[in-house]
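User: Fold both of these, please.

Assistant: Here is the first one.
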Amino acid sequence: MNPDHLRKSSIEIGRIYFWTAIINKWQHLLRTDSFKDVIISSLQYLHTKNLIDVFGFVIMPNHIHLIWRINNMNGKESPASSLLKFSAHQFKKMLSSHELSNYKVTRDNKSYEFWQRDSLAIHLYSPEVMYQKLEYIHGNPTTERWSLVKDTCDYVYSSASFYEKGSKRFTFLKHIGEEV
């Protein structure tokens, strides 16, 4: 991909965003729960350090959607960068050399790229837009394209059951209703 065509999404500290990160070449790296758990661990860590608030999420086979707020930088980098960098290091450790070849790149600063370089961040400027995006991400696993579950609450790697059933499985979640 030509770097001139990358989306120029940025995140301001203290604002709530709908954020999407995509696995390189739309590969289904996140189809396995152990890879999804890496994302969960990173979100939990960033939350524990009070760097982020997560209001909603879904981890799909080849992308993730978050509704979140960045509260502080993680040293010199944003928590979004930390999430992508940490997960990439973990993915590299978890994959066989054969599987790693799918993510091989020729760059001066790295040999593998697990995430596309064009994460999308959209500021959520009203309660209506926040709830619309929340409904969208919760519905992802039930769409005809994915058909991962029939009921949104049955998909484990999502905040749907937090909102629908009060599940406390993911302690990093904060209810969007507390913000609007």
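And the second sequence with its predicted structure:
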Amino acid sequence: MVAVRPTSVRMLLVLGACCVLLGWMVGSWIDGMGRLPVIPWLAVLVIWVVAGFMLAWALVARRRLRPDPGRPRMAPLVAARTAALALAGSRTGSVVFGLYAGIALRLIQETSASAARERMLAAALAALGGLVLAGLSLWLEHICRLPDDPDGAGAAGSGTRAPGAHA
């Protein structure tokens, strides 16, 4: 049986901080060419839609992983795939947050132009959407965790066994 370790919030913070720096550098590079970074509103919408789907799936997973008596449980393979989705979502949200936050920070210096203000708002909303996605993904991952094995047969009783794995 493969043990799955919970996502480290510290790792997500480091990843996000590195991406903030990268986003700021990309924004500065584009600004150095005499243009402002383009932040399409469709990108903002997509990240918020993905976060909405993550919320919906977390609510479904919570109900199906801890069902009321007489209701069907989530299949173990679906639970494992849900945990993998949560891992991917937390990392993606952290990267999206960092890149767009870095671009927004770079555009703060250019707020005298209305186009720069609009692009800064779009970047800030995309960064917020990435943060929400990362938070919802961490919550979904928490929902997918199994309780500790009383006999220690799982992952050394750590409570971090793969979802759906039964003792």
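The helical segments are 9-32, 41-65, 76-107, 114-144.
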